Each structure stands twice: as structure tokens, then as C-alpha cells.
Amino acid sequence: MTQVTDATFADEVLANDLPVLVDFTADWCPPCRQIAPVLAAVASEEAHRLKVVALDVDHNPQTQAAYGVLSMPTLMVFRGGQPVKSMVGARAKARLLRELSEVL
């Protein structure tokens, strides 16, 4: 999974041809650690149609504020430079794939 920052967000996420799932995460967040292996598996299995990146909100407050992210983890899907879906909280892989199916 690619790590993005305030400085790289536009290039890595907004300008990407594929839909991009952004994991707004923090080191101090237990649910963030819980969903990390799920996201890594999805990133690997769906690489042909979805890019998965992580953004540490403690080190990148501009992007967090720009998209109104208040809870961690927040999973936000961007397509064509625009957010098209937002989900809050950890979830099982099967549920995440079901929720993503409508935007892929």
C-alpha cells in the first residue's frame, strides 16, 4: 500500500486513472491497525482496478481538513479527482468488497 502525504495527494490520488481508496489513518487508532491487513489484501487482489493508499492524518492535516475527516479510519474512494464514497470504521474484507463494488 502506498503512503501519501499532503504534498503527494493530488498526484497519487486526484490525478490517478484508477479509482483510489484512501485510508485516512493514525498510529494511535486500534481500528486502523485492525483494518490494515484487510486493505493490504484488497490492494493486492484488486490492483488491476483499484489503487489503495494510506494517509496519516497526524502528519497530513491539510488533506484531512479538506475532506472533513473526523473519525479514523475513514475510507474514501476517489474517482476522476472527486470523492464518490466514504465509509467510517473497520470492516471485514467481504463487507468492504461489497461496499466497493458499487464504485468500481
From TrEMBL:
SUPFAM superfamilies: Thioredoxin-like
Record has Ligase as a keyword: no
Biological process according to GO: cell redox homeostasis
Residues annotated as site: Deprotonates C-terminal active site Cys: D23
UniProt-annotated site: Contributes to redox potential value, residues: P30, P31
MF-aspect GO terms: protein-disulfide reductase activity
Intrachain S-S bonds: C29-C32
Active site: C29 (nucleophile), C32 (nucleophile)
Pfam family for this entry, one: Thioredoxin
CDD domains linked: TRX_family
Gene Ontology CC terms: cytosol
Keyword Electron transport: yes
Keywords, in A-Z order: Disulfide bond, Electron transport, Redox-active center, Transport
Origin: domain of life: Bacteria
Domain Thioredoxin span(s) in chain numbering: 1-104
Homology family: Belongs to the thioredoxin family.
Name assigned to this protein: Thioredoxin
Gene name tied to this protein: trxA
